[in-house]
Amino acid sequence: MAGQRSRIAIIDDEPDIAELFSEGLKMAGFKTCIFEDAEDAIEYISLYHSEIALATVDWGMPLMNGFTIIKQISDIDGNIKILLISGYDLTQEQLKVYNNVTYLVEPITIATLIETVKKVLFQIK
Questions:
Q1: Could you tell me the CATH number of the domain that includes residue 76?
Q2: Which of 9, 33, 50, 69 could form a disulfide with 55 if both were Cys (CB 3.0 to 4.6 A apart)?
Q3: Edge-to-edge strand list for the sheet holding 52-58
Q4: pTM value?
């Protein structure tokens, strides 16, 4: 990954899913950090944003939905790529205001997660 941005922040309130994503991404060579609380994630990203290349964001977080999290991350650092993951079928209209967001509909496999992360980070078609 270019520059110092080498970490993927995994923001998901389901610990088993967050750990599964983290382990899969680590096996593919990525560094990760896990946040089960959106406010903790935002606080960390505000302090260490230059280390974060990408954040995976669960749409259905308690207290803050995915768009609120995306907005806050984008306000902190617009260079952080976002991978929004949701069981809900969001429309392109809902996503068009965010140019740094890629969207995956659950359920997803680890292979799909890794492939999508590589595409987003390395601009692979």
A1: 3.40.50.2300
A2: 9
A3: 31-35, 7-11, 52-58, 81-86, 101-105
A4: 0.90
